């Protein structure tokens, strides 16, 4: 499985982007997004931002199927009476052919969005627990980033240290 | 972990990797499978824990710094509005940071917090606080020895490892104001603010009352020095999606000669959104 | 307090006790992170104002520190009731064990004495000003992030008739081994206030 991950700022500007690819294929090729689809990734991602903004202020968010169910395919969001559940992780918010889009919101309204895809166009399965953990750890890294007095909110995060840590988290949680 | 090896040779190592971060113009870079064991790029901020260590400095140090900030801004401002805006912007910078920081910290269960919090003076040289803090004390000792933050922070003191359920993002005005009145104020000044009031006349107005403002207590005669806290409140709220303006108003009596009311006026769209999502 | 008949190590020991005691029982305190973030906001704003001319930023931080130092010394002397220091060795110990302890709750190590005992270094294993800070690439050569500390010491020492140079030698923020400030005595100013000044 491959992922395209982006942090999107308040003006829908990308603050950080990365692509993670899974194992090598049978012929030793990198299993990323198909080249023709890869160019579309930012557009697919941006198309989901409206949905995320709508979910941002939804009073009773919770994951259908529940984040607790391991190996679930990431249920769509439904309004439900669960007032304690966290509303940072939005789970699966959209899909585009075989690609699944998940999202997460920080307290400061930064959108963490990820496209989960395959080189073949079969629908991917995502593990909500792992995806949520990935987002949550990146949220902590992001918080450290904004604590730095030299970082201005909304600027691209160009730190190599940040980048290397995000990629390590992707290997830890998503590199299956 | 391999990270520790990297750290000792830090200056050279850093140069090797210095240009490999995200570049906006180029777009996303691909992680390749053969990078599986790529080391972290050493970094002070990313390897330090953001767990609250309850460290303190003298109030006088803060007061001196604040006075000097005020006098610099005053010298460089042509109008009182410019002064207020500049001072407010400094506060906003801090409000932005506190929003994610304090919400994340508030998500750590209090049981985990108390066992991992360092004693407030644990990082002093010479103090033999040794056995009390377990893993976190070890980390601390190595900080003193090397003069640099040890990498074991990374695995031991990641906040997310302690969080099972993140605190909810606040969606309602009253919820986020209560967080400011309670958690933010306690974090900054050791106690909640003295009052949180909703205006009876105007629907979009709320007030946070501080009987004895800490930062301005040593500054006499210029009430607009309270704009720093206004900026902090405004930065916190605006960044969370509650756009507003905040201004300080005196409310003094014999007991509290410095009492200040922070008047928060929310933008129209904030109230409209709330009415739409929660019913008026 | 008679100090002449004691060894220098017991000097510094008693100074440590004084500093610790005042910090613990007689000092109003505030969140160190608020302090660090406020300072961070000041430095980053200066970098913007001076268009990343970091030498100017250093100077401005030094000036701000100097202004603080000349006022801070009164507060320090009032709270510690410290008698005049007889030499730089004693002065260094007071700065480390009492002044830094009381104001920032740290005690930098005194080291690297010059042979004539008029210049020394303060080594900072920790620095509450630089919490959460990573310098931008272009600042690692010229910016002394915590330069306000040098100004504070310069101003405070001048008020007790010690004309000193105070400057950063190295800083871990620049990936250097340690954070070190050098204090070098130029001359002891005469007590008399020159005519025409007050």
Structural summary, described in words:
The complex is a heterotrimer of chains A (176), B (280) and C (198). With 176 residues, chain A is α+β, with helices and mostly antiparallel strands. In chain A, 31% of the residues lie in helices and 24% in strands. A 5-stranded antiparallel β-sheet of chain A has the order 2-1-7-6-5, sandwiched between helices. A two-stranded antiparallel sheet of chain A has the order 3-4. In chain A, β1 and β2 (14-21) form a beta hairpin. The relative contact order of chain A is 0.20. The model of chain A is unreliable at 64-75 and 77-81 (pLDDT under 50). In chain B, α4 runs antiparallel to α5 (80-107) and α5 crosses α11 (227-239). The longest helix of chain B has 28 residues, at 80-107. Mean pLDDT of chain B is 80; it is low at 1-18 and 115-156. By secondary structure, chain C is of the alpha+beta class. Chain C has 5 helices and 5 strands; from the N terminus they run αβαααββαββ. The radius of gyration of chain C is 17 Å and the shape is globular. The two termini of chain C are 30 Å apart. The chains are: A alpha+beta (176), B alpha+beta (280), C alpha+beta (198).
Biggest β-sheet strands, sense, barrel of chain A: 5 strands, antiparallel
- Summed over residues and divided by their number, the pLDDT of chain C gives a mean of 92
CATH architecture annotation of chain A: 2-Layer Sandwich
Radius of gyration of chain A: 16 Å
Which regions of chain C are unreliable across 5 or more consecutive residues at pLDDT < 50? 1-6
The amount of helix of chain C comes to: 40-55%
Alpha-carbon Rg of chain C, integer: 17 Å
Proportion of residues in helical segments of chain A: 25-40%
Strands across the major sheet of chain A, in which order? 2-1-7-6-5
> What's the architecture of chain C, going by CATH?
2-Layer Sandwich
| Secondary structure tally, helices of chain A | 5
The CATH class assignment of chain C is: Alpha Beta
What fold name stands as the CATH topology of chain A? Answer: Beta-Lactamase
Gross morphology of chain C is globular
Q: What would you call the shape of chain A? A: globular
In the CATH hierarchy, what is the class of chain A? Answer: Alpha Beta
**Percent in strands of chain C:** 15-25%
Number of domains of chain A: 1
Give the total of domains of chain C. Answer: 1
| Biggest pleated sheet of chain C | 4 strands, antiparallel
* Category by helix and strand content of chain C: alpha+beta
